[in-house]
Amino acid sequence: MLGHHYTRTFLETAIASMNAGCNLELSYGMRNNVFMHIPQALVMGNITLQMLRDRVRPLFYTRMRLGEFDPPAMNPYSTLNLSAVQSPEHRNLSLEAAVKSFVLLKNVRGTLPLRARDLPGKRLAVVGPFADNPRVLFGDYAPVPEPRYIYTPRRGLETLPANVSFAAGCREPWCQQYSRAEVVGAAGAADVVVVCLGTGTDVETEAKDRRDLALPGHQLELLQDAVQ
Asked: What Gene Ontology terms describe what this protein does at the molecular function level (predicted)?
């Protein structure tokens, strides 16, 4: 109604949503939400009681499976804490999921993977605004992470047997203030350069769209300086 103007009133919106199969409203705490008009739609005959029951049933089935109506002592989820969520098993599973979700666009001359046995004595530079900034590594709607479990590219690469140097070039994803000398100095003295670029929630999130897909600010310039 407000953004796409598909409907004109909250009542009309409630009726269209229910008939389309929607059973949950994401509201902003207003007392006069869209789905508060369902009783009126029911009285008017625009929706049926059976339709309302069909919409509600999966919601409460899910809540029951989660134990929301049980005493806390009966709910196994209520005893979970960080030690369970961040157990070694779960962390290893997260690592496996990350490794298996990588998309490798090119691998010129078999540069990747970097093997620890090949790195002793090598100089490795990690550069870019995403190289060592934990705050920008998490997407929109991501949970608040536990800092001690965050491995930035720099922190991860420093676990390898190599001489690792670091240069952000620009401190934030918008990359408006760029230090070319910092990047060129680190990259020019390295055998291997890892460039960490992107957007992150500073640049794009829900309701924060962009006009193009180009790297923001001076990030493309940073990349060119790092690889020349």
From this structure: alpha-L-arabinofuranosidase activity; xylan 1,4-beta-xylosidase activity
